[in-house]
């Protein structure tokens, strides 16, 4: 092999997609890794990957979660030469469940209720973004824009609050009617009362199984998070030091859309 490794930038992929790798020549090491792990691999640092020695191909590797992925084929610890090819197969569609036919006796036609139907419809958001005001311009606002571009509905104070609104009431509405809580943890976030109020609500809803908490760590260390709340460091977080805001938005959108698809499959 003329280069130390062959690399395939798989770009943004959804959970459940399958990478199919074909080797020609000797056996080789095949490694499937995230973008941050690939950076560590190139730098010679420790990294985590789905990897192993492949002696017979094609081999199929399943992508465990949405994000930016790389495939690396190398001959570290081996001899000879090898060439490779790879392609990605999209994840299968969720199983379609057919509803049983209802007997005619069960069909009812009722006249519409008096008044506007929209008055009883409650707005539901995919994502509630909790953040400190110091992180709005650098993280929260661009994250919200990227998520909206990806088709994700977002509750962000600057998008929902209007003059005269009750801040507490609007926050409670957003907390209660969002499927995911994205929390931008930073030093200012941990120092503010309103952010702690939002965090308490998000944690309560997660414990009750009503919402999923998706943490982002921005300019803050694990020790600082642990000092504030030891339970928070156990949840996998995206670091702005490792991922760009657009990449973070794509990963969040993948999680949101995957749950939405699962919900449709259960309907």
TrEMBL record:
One of its GO terms (biological process) is signal transduction. InterPro entries: DUF1883 (IPR015073), DUF1883-like_sf (IPR036488), TIR_dom (IPR000157), Toll_tir_struct_dom_sf (IPR035897). Residues 123-256 form the TIR domain. Pfam families: DUF1883 (PF08980), TIR_2 (PF13676). It comes from the Bacteria. This is TIR domain-containing protein.
